[in-house]
Each structure stands twice: as C-alpha cells, then as structure tokens.
Amino acid sequence: MLSLSQAQDRAQALVDEARRAGADAADALYVCNASTGVSVRLGEMEDVEQSEGEEIGLRIFVGQRSATVSASDLERASLSALVDRCLAMAREAPEDPYAVLAPEARLLRGKPPVLDLVDADEVDPAALKERALTAEDAARSIPGITNSEGGGASMGRTQIALATSHGFAGSYAATIHGTWASVLAGEGGGMQRDSASHSARHLKDLDDAEHIGRRAGQRAVARLHPEKVASGVMPVIFDPRIGGSLVGHLIGAIAGPAITRRSSFLLDDLGARLFDSGVTIMDDPHRKRGLRSRPFDGEGLPTQRRALIDRGVLTGWLLDSASARQLGLEPTGHASRGTSGSPGVSATNVHIEPGTLSPGDLMSGIERGIYVTELIGMGVNMVTGDYSRGASGFLIENGAVSHAVSEITIAGSLKEMFAAMIPASDLAFRYAINVPTLRIDGMTVAGG
After folding, report:
1. CA 390, CA 230: separation in Å to the nearest integer?
2. Residues 82 and 216 in one domain
C-alpha cells in the first residue's frame, strides 16, 4: 500500500505524462482497500480473510472525446503503457459535449476539513476472533435461539488520491471497524432469523460485541409465531434501521444523471413541497467520523453541508459536472467515482432531522397498523414512484406493538408517502443514512 503522499504523487505523475503524450485534459484516481475479517459459527472459527488491493484509473480527454482505463500494476513502465492505451481509446471514442473536468474555479483550494476518519489503533486477528465469538455467544445465549448463521468482526482501511490536469491534487484515508451476529430462533418450518451489526470509523465508537449479539438474539425470538394480517389501508411505522431506505429512494430520484435521463418520478418537482413543513433532510459530508464523510468529491470539488429537503421543500439536484453542464447548472460537490469509469453521483452522511413526538406518541392512537422491521425485494419504480415491497414486523393494535407478522406487502406512491411522513424524536447516528422512527398513514397492506 502506498502512503497518501506517494499515492498523490503517483496520480499527479500519471496526469502529467498524459498531458505530455497529447491529452487535452486528464485526471487520475488512486484507490486502495485493505481489510481483515474473522467469522465464527457455533463457537468455532469458520473463516479468516485478509485482502489488500490497489488500483489507479486514468481518464483522458481529447477534444470532446474521452476514455477511462484502470490498472492494478503501479510500476512506472506499466503506467506509461496505460497512458498510451487510454489516449488511443479516447481518440476513437464518440464525442460527448458534457463529459468534462470540474470547473477550475470551483476546485478545492487550501487546507481540507479535518474529519477524523482514521483510527491509528490496529486490531490483530486474535482480537477480531474474540469479538466475533463474544457477539455470537451473546446471541446464542438468548432463550429460544436454536441455531446460528455466525458472528463476525472486521477492520479495514481505504486510501484515496485524486489529481487533475487543471490544478487539483488531494488525498485522504479512512478506517472502518465492524461487528455482526445472525441467529435463528424456533424449530422446523417456524424458524425465524434476524441479525444485528454495527460499523464505526473508530474502534472505541463501536457498540459492545455482547450488546450486538444480544440484540440479534432478541430480534430473532421476537419474530416467532407470526400471524396473518387482514389486508387494508392503515398506518405503517418504519423502524430506524430500515427507514433510511425511503431516503435512499429520494436520493436516487434527485441525482443529476436520473434527471438528465428523465427517469425520475421527481423530474418536475424542483422547488416543490414534497414533505410536511416539519421535515428537513440534511446531507453532511463533514460529520466527524461519519461513515460517508469526505473532504472533496470525485472531481476535486469541495463538499459542504446542505439541506436536501428544507422544511419540506426540495432544494435542488445532486450534480456532478457532466449532469450539471447538461442541465445548465453548477455541480454541487456530489460526484462519486471508481477507477474504471466516469463520475456518477452520491450523497454523503444523510439524516432526517428529529421530530417532536416520541416513538410511543407516534404510535398512540393507531387502532390497527404495522410496525415494519424488515423490507424484502426491490419493488420500487423510480420512474413512476410506485412502491411495493415485501415486509415483516409487528402488528400495532390500540397504540401498542402486538404479535409478529410476516409475508405481507406494503404499497403506496413515494410522493404520497413523502407527503404523509412524520418523524419521531429518536434520531441516532449509526448508519450512512440515519432516520428516526417514521410514521406514514394511508399505506396499503396486503396480508399473507
């Protein structure tokens, strides 16, 4: 693994060589991922994985033509051949007036923000094994647990360096620690499975392994003996661990490439009120130790905190330079890319601001509804906004959680769901997309 300074120098040297070879413009992205993971099952070691891979991608522009080539061989001779191959491909590529480097005047200048993404402490495989065993043992200790899919612990490090021919060079690193457990409760055809996990940039921010395991076991046992539910229209409450998927659909619908392709159900809703005025959704790339924090985007533009939804109103699209140019707008610092292709778009750390009601208050008054803890399948049409997914969870009766339910389908229109969404006050930052408990009235529930 190259150091950050070595990686940045290597990317810059590749760009400089491309320019000398005849490229009108170029950028180079270096990515290295290294990880160690241990998994156990039924108290015994099952697998140890250790991997490290580094790759560099070069994008070359010749007029309005461009091409991208990547390689894992970082030796100087191999990189020279990479330049020649990429340049030849660019000269034969079709013209694309929207494929450009980011605007030079908008590039990140000066010192990047300090995001505290790197944990200096190393964790050896023995410690990972102990953590994995602790998590699985705690899950299996819950009465009613009859089998295990295993437990695991991991750590990893990612390093990224980007250089462009018009003046940007930057790099950053991030570490990640994780623990998980997955177990089964019950017997035969009535068995139920559930899991728990947690990931954090720093080890000391990671949930206790025993707590993770017990949570997995308790979740599995709670799902035993599910009952049928009569179909109907009713309120649905989304648990925070799956409610973030709704925000994910919003992000996909406001991504610049979806708008330029006219494949978004929100195509004509820029500046429209989509949610209740009490709903604000933030994108915060500068959260300290955030799982998607980053000092600059995939094109070298600075990142910044912004409201995607401001008191219910859609504020704008998420744009890389290509989609921004096509729409006649400015890029927003949301470009995301790998080493083998042109930039796309992604959000960073996203959350819904908490509401004023507790989860209990949000549930009170519901005579009959569903508390959803798991979603199944991908029945979402991003062109029309039609939403239909398999689900499981618990019946709500007279304002309280009742027995488990499974094999149900919940359906609606995403725009109508957004408009009806009510967030509770229990926001916690655990994932890349964080939401409090969410209530949506008027959804169609089909029983099994």
Report:
1. 15
2. yes
